[in-house]
Amino acid sequence: MLSPRKAVRSVPAYHPPLAGREGLRLDFNENTVGCSPRVLERLRSLTFEDLARYPEREPVEAKIAEFLSVAKEDLLLTNGVDEAIHLLCQTYLDPGNEAVIAVPTYSMYRIYMAAAGAQVIEVPADSDFQFPLDAVRARITSRTRMIAIANPNNPTGTFTAAEQLLEIARSAPDAAILVDEAYFEFCGQTMLPIRNQAPNIFVTRTFSKAYGLAGLRAGVLIGPADQMASIRRVCSPYNVNAAALAFLPVAIADQPYIDRYVTETLDSRNRLENALDARSVPYWPSQANFVLARIGPSKSAAQAFVEQMRRRGILVRDRSADCGCEGCVRFTVGPEQHATRLLTALEEVLEELSISQGASRS
Q1: Which range marks the domain in which residue 19 is found?
Q2: How much is the pTM?
Q3: CB 316 within 8 A of CB 331
Q4: What's 145's DSSP letter?
């Protein structure tokens, strides 16, 4: 009788709460105003022939490689960063291998690792969700073949110093080290200039966040040329669709638009953190386009808060199911007008639920 592999049967299902997302969407860390208008202009110029042909990835890869100041042989465009994670798992993980993540972090690392048959080692973050360098190093063994680190991390917004990432890479020379820089634009710090100091480091970037192209599913995987050649063997030659390939050169060319959006987002992040400070609501200083706050001591407190915000037309994300995040809610931030709406609703709901407890973040 036909049956999925054992590893697949044991993978937990991931169901993002996408249904019924009516209101200001501050729950998925998306760009809250959308892409550059130039991208929409390019959309209108697409022809029947553009969509009838198989997409050609390499010319656009060359442009993205030049933009990121990396060799084109080191770069692969992917169907979102999710595909990049999947490809790394398919390339480097065999059943019985070990893969390490520090939790809480992005859920899809664990899912793709487990689906490849690896034993996923979850290492709890240090206090204040700092990266647990010593604990991760202690879990590296001869079977460790992959370590994934979101930097800045999701859902906490915390950042791991480059020296710590290099130390992890050097401590696990037989493992692929993924440094996921999905939120790079909001922190401005990257491993790209020093990644070659360790030959097992891979860096990912996305166009889903600052660039406002989440619906196109476009990501970038960067690594050593010899390793990237192996990764391309398990990648479809047509993995990135024609529309995404048409839009990416236009999107990266309009850096003034990205700079304005990022500047406003950082200002909004400061406004939100100041508002939480004023009400003594515990939160973690963020290096991304979101802030994680502990609304109450339990999941029920977070759920009540999320529901009250939804009634005011603001969607935020309950993260209570994540390790160490019970009672926590994540707020995406965007430009000034969206921050004003968020802060108005936030103040009303905090007052209604009498949330101003000054409790510990831990």
Answers
A1: 14-30+256-352
A2: 0.93
A3: yes
A4: E
Cβ atoms of 332 and 28 closer than 8 Å: yes
User: Is residue 208 located within the same domain as residue 173?
Assistant: yes
Cβ neighbors of 208 (< 8 A, separation 6 or more) are: 30, 80, 81, 182, 214, 217, 218, 219
Query: Residue 357: inside a domain, yes or no?
Result: no
d(CA 339, CA 35): 18
3-state helix, strand, coil in the chain (%, to 5): 45, 15, 40
Nearest to 115 by CA among 256, 275, 8: 8
- Name 101's bridge partners: 122, 148
Structure-token match 């992890």, residue found: 168
Examine the domain organization and report whether 225 and 314 are in the same domain: no
3-state secondary structure of 118: coil
Alpha-carbon span 183 to 307, nearest angstrom: 27
C-alpha distance from residue 168 to each of 154, 165, 204 (Å): 19, 5, 17
The pLDDT tens digits for 227-270 are 999 999 999 999 999 999 999 999 999 999 999 999 999 999 99
